[in-house]
Design brief:
Blueprint: H1 8-16, H2 22-34, E1 61-62, E2 68-69, E3 94-99, E4 102-105, E5 132-141, E6 147-148, E7 153-157, E8 179-183, E9 189-195, E10 207-212, E11 226-230, H3 234-240, H4 247-253, E12 274-278, E13 282-291
Parallel strand pairs: 5-13
Antiparallel strand pairs: 1-2, 3-4, 5-6, 5-9, 7-8, 7-10, 10-11, 12-13
Amino acid sequence: MEDHDHSLAADLQAMLSMATGRRQSLRWLLAGAALPMMGCGGGSSDSTSTDTTSSNTGTSTGTNTGTNTGTNTGTGTTSCSVIPEETGGPYPGDGTNSNSSGVVNVLNMSGIVRQDIRSSFAGATGTAAGVPLTIKLHIINANNSCGVASNFAVYLWHCDREGRYSLYSSGVTNQNYLRGVQEADANGDVTFTTIFPGCYDGRMPHVHFEVYRTLAASVSASNRIKTSQFTFPMATLNEAYASSGYSTSVTNLARISYATDNIFSDGYSLQLASMTGNATDGYVATLTLAVAA
């Protein structure tokens, strides 16, 4: 796998830019003790609604075949737990940091609003290879009786099969694939077509996302109302990484766990996608996420 510059300094810089809380302090201690090499940095304190009873179970059960089922409820309820706030990591591409060529911002590029994010756009060429993955996010508003958050927008990004982030990692700085924005429909649903992300050293496999109140607001990262990450059940990871092209992910996954990951070690029930499908035909990842807006 390529050198991705997943450094402690980059993670600390990301963490220090976020508000300190009891949850974050614990994460720093855990990271210092157990993770000398971190991936995308630590998170900040949770943002939760006044009602703490969760109707988003975030559960997922899996068989040895990697087929997983789960429920993420929330629509029409009166209380729900807001998905934890997490760092966007060193590679957001949203105008908040730079690569070797300067500030990196795909949010104001023509073509960023798209469902299929496997290929590069805006003049860049190249397509990310890997096991097909469809991501379905259902957004609800904790400040509106956990009703659907219609017409909100999501910017989503993740690494490729080799664990590289477009725009930043060696070999793909001229690519911008695996990044895209979608507007939620009237039911609060957004869908992305992508590939199953690889596992790079020091992090559990994950997907980053930012939530905005409107599509128009998503042109600037300063308008984001939530930044977080989600992950996948272990049964799915094991099955997906048995596929061609993911051999390095097998090795890296063996060295990390949910308990030692610097993001998910303090709990990930609200950040665990429910899975269907298989490595041959592709997977569908479903997650209900509550925001307070």
